[in-house]
Amino acid sequence: MSLTGTERQLNKEAAAITVKTRRKVLEVIKKDFKHNWKVYLMALPVVAFYIIFCYGPMWGLSIAFVDFKPRLGILKSPFVGLKHFKNFVTDPYFGRLVTNTFMLNLWGLVFGFPAPIILALSLNEVVNKRFKRTVQTITYMPHFISLVVVCGLIRIFCGSDGLLNDIIAMFGGERTPLLANANLFRPIYTFSGIWQNVGWDSIIYLAAISNVSPELYESATIDGAGRFRRMWHVTIPSIAPTITILLIFAIGGMLGSAHEKIILLYNPVTYEKADVIASYVYRRGLQEFDYSYSAAVGLISSVVNFVFLWCANAAARKMSETSLW
Amino acid sequence: MLHKTVGDRIFNVVNYILLSFITFACLYPVLYVIFASVSDPIQLQAHRGFLYKPLGFTLAGYKAVFKDSDIMTGYANTIFYVVVGVAVNMVFTILGAYVLSRKNLFWKKAIMIIVTITMFFGGGLIPFYLLVKNLGMENTRLALIIPYALNTWNMIIMRTGFESVPGELEEAAKVDGADHFFILTRVILPLSKAVCAVILLYYVVGAWNSWFPAMIFLRERQKFPLQLMLREILITNDTSQMQQGISMTVSGSGQFGETTAYRELIKYTTIVISTVPIMCFYPFIQKYFVKGVYVGSLKG
Fold it and tell me: If you ran DSSP here, which 8-state letter would residue A79 be given?
């Protein structure tokens, strides 16, 4: 009898465990371990990694409910319940942080989200293979440049002697250090993000487009549809499920944000528009060592994020057949 | 075969113009930096507007950067973090992907739940930092490797790649008495080169460009990766900590005006030398991108 026969048997047994007795379950577990112990050996480091570095910090969130004293450790520090959470909600910066986080994501959603879709649709209409390949290679490039360098470039180009100011001056405008202007932070952040990721993010839409059946295009052409109408009536509806899923992710992340780019770009002058929850957590936590308070802020933000993701998914499920779960 | 209407032609022209503009916009900042990095710093400082070619020609910036011990230390450290870190990444990812691609595994669902929860919820920055600190990894090179040993998305992408290997091949190997280590290394991996290449690229790029973990976990300069040295030059504008090469070129260049000119030049040269390795690397793996990204995003 080959191993596979036994495994098939095992599978059947595993499916039926709900009705079998406890002894039977134990037997299945034993048999499974006998056949698969090497797989479990492989799983050991991976599961250990998850438990230590993903679940460890979740356990570590208990720091948000105490007044952390490094000498006492989390467990012996005085328990303060929801004090830090209340403090955050009444924090003078609370409104500003929530607004900034939300607005920065809204800018991303309005300008950043459609950009790769437009690029993919546009690339799809290109007949010349070589041109298409060249455009793709070049637009992917910024994705591979490090965030530190990208932000360095932004600083160089936005400085008062920088290229952007040269262009402004060419049209008779006045030279100003653009990164010191809080009102320009959102556009600079958003459009540099599009610059960096539009090519890369278009890949997924191009892949979805390549799965569209050519017959649909043929019949549309026979019906007299021009290029634009084929794009509008065939391509876009065909990739709508992909768009929906990515939109769920985008909306689900509305109150989250990556702190790395913000930290590299902002300065106290632009805090009023640039400081978001994540950068505040970093500043209060790792620069001012206010561990308990910033952990509480981080916890609120991840819970709110999870709720957002859940709602976006529920909405998508109600309106269409596409959803994450 | 193609009957082009007027509308189609206009569409085509507009489309090509749009794409050319996007391509130019993606390319030009990079060209600008390359031109500027070999330009004469005094001329460059006086120049306004677009650069179409280098202004004059000098390799002074490159010489200063290659003489600078901090940049070179950063470079060596980054190579270390990339080689060791990515090796660890690949081992963990391949093991995890193999486990999750098994069909007859009693505890598979439990493992999957453990993994999935972490994709939606995490402890956040502060508890993570404190954990790594409490594990005694602060200010050690391990802090940049062990806590980042695995990326869940990459593991899921790789699992999907492994699942596409025909089951019959494994069955045949099993009949011949092969164990799981044999199946993984001799059956699955040789047939999953494409997905492995993509994941390798993701990890290499991530490790090469990473700076934040180094900033929060490392204290000593001789352990800093290149990106952290770059941050001082490009973002905090502080070269006072830099030794030899750069600060000598910057301060040895005479008057104040020249000093700032050289400081600017060095920004461009450091950008070039830090970015070139990755730029040379990615086009080779480009043909696998579509596969990797698509599989990962939709089947996760």
Answer: B
